[in-house]
Amino acid sequence: xxxxxxxxxAPSSDTPPPGPPVRRPALDWRIRFxxxxxxxxxxxLLIKVGTDGYAPFQVTxxxxxxxxxxxxxxxxxxxxxxxxxxxxxxxxxVAAFFLNALPFSLxxxxxxxxxxxxxxxxxxxxxxxxxxxxVVALSEDRPTRRRVAGLGLGFIGVLTVLGAWQGxxxxxxxxxxxxxxxxxxxxxxxxxxxxxxxxxxxxxxxLTGSQLFLGTAQLALVVPMFTDMPTHVPLLPxxxxxxxxALGTGLAVLLQYGLVEEVGPTTAQMVTYFIPVIAxxxxxxxxxxxxxxxxxxxxxxxxAGAALTQSRNRGPAGVSRRVAGAGPAGRGTPRRTADAGPVxxx
Length: 346
What we know:
Strand order of the largest sheet: 1-2
Helix content: 55-70%
Order of helices and strands: EHHHHHHHHHHHHE
């Protein structure tokens, strides 16, 4: 869900930048990459299960609370310091809204009326929104023929998924619009982060943990106003919400940071393209959701378009630069100071 660190220009080479040697983790990076793909891919199924027992705002609050707890433990173990300036906290408050509170809530509401498979595919449109917005908001991002072609291809893919030639018959317009709006919210937040939180002096983990805390506080204010206290605690939805937060919003962030440090941002970001595939497989096999031919075909077209929007021509030095794309849910390119890491992926 679409989540990942905030966008910033990052080397596309898979060779990490020079610096102190990184201690090699016990688990091979391929195992951690697979785990990350599965965690974020299954997040849409967990949202669906969570909303069977709780209101959407309650699902989002539980998710953020569990994710914050995981990152708080990680920060304590690594002795990370919280951001020190009020200006940084103010920017993190805005980032938490666009990268966590708003998209997580929108996906939860969307899945009341649309399948988790469709929500996962809508999440994959984040790079398309990001490319379109970055051209306007970021002066260094100039459109190229390849990226414009990717945007057009992705748009065709979205129309294919939605069955435009059938007049969108059988489609819940409100739920689908919410899912697409959630996917749009991620790049809005990434661009805001890129413009405001560069050079704060805080680590990515510190910024991410603080951001999730602020997102939790935002939902803590909203939940009592728009929902009633649950009369009972259903077991399966409760476990789904805890897993969604602890794994998809907590552990997944730590896995992604480790992958970026070890294999570089380009390889780590490839997880984005596995999320809708896993979300679709999970929804069909475990929830019995119906899958028409246009859904997987359209999803492949969307992913192809997203891949094109993330490509750049190499400059004189042979280095390409990109704006981080998707996404948990969706999931971009963490850097130490320039980017506050949201979670992604839904």
